[in-house]
Amino acid sequence: MSDPETVLLFLTGTRGTQVHLTPSQTSAEDLTAALNGVLRKLRQDLGSDLRLVDADGVELTVENIAVNKVSPVFVLPAEGEYEPGTLRREGVQVTSTEDLYVNERGKVLLQRPEKPALPSVPKPHDSTYKPRSQLEFVQMMNSNRDPLNRGSAPLLSVTLSELSQHTSPEDAWVALYGKVYDMTKYVTCHPGGNVIMQAAGKDGTELFRKFHPWVNVDALIGKLQVGVLKSGSSYFLRP
Fold it and tell me: In the CATH scheme, what is the homologous superfamily, with its name and number, of domain 134-229?
């Protein structure tokens, strides 16, 4: 869901200045600085100092407007009389309107800022794709029957010596309950961080039973199985 836009209207006589912003992306401090920039421009247009009031004639500060998103705001010369009852938006005939835009860094722009392009994410079926979060990992596993692109290749019979050759984040295998999994795609998604590498190239069953006894291994990473631990290489052949 996109962030809703808020428009603050500043009325200077019959002229309106609309300031567009997305509140959740712009802090009150940045918005205050941005509005001060807008008011400097209006001060130059009026050629005098300003008074800021709401529709009831209540004096406002820039901080009030930024925090409470007050709109409309009547911009008046610092000197001069006015009738509070006349300061109603519906009673003002706006003859011209200027639109200004505040970006997420609090900078005032003359044009609506373009939304930054989202980084391209490789398709889950791409063999080079590595999920960047637990959520992406689960989505990949749910959408891809063969995340390792093994096709119909038979499961390998892996010895502990062969297992010990896969110990880097780019090539991480681990044995759990007699099954050997290629964990390379899961390393960066592990909620516990890089600690998962303690089991890389080893029989990690004991560690797994110590820290994750409630986790269903096959449900989580079953599609990452590449082989079985060769008979006699592990004591933990069953959950």
Answer: Cytochrome b5-like heme/steroid binding domain (3.10.120.10)
- CATH 3.10.120.10 in the chain is located at 134-229
> Could you tell me the pLDDT band of residue 239, with boundaries at 50, 70 and 90?
very low
Bridge partner residues of 173 (DSSP): 182
- How does strand 96-102 pair with strand 73-77? unpaired
Contacts of 200 (CB under 8 A, 6+ apart): 166, 167, 168, 169, 172, 173, 174, 183, 187
Answer whether residue 122 shows pLDDT above 80.
no
pTM for this entry:
0.47
| pLDDT digit string, tens, across residues 51-67 | 888 877 788 899 988 88
* Residues 101-119, mean pLDDT to the nearest whole number: 73
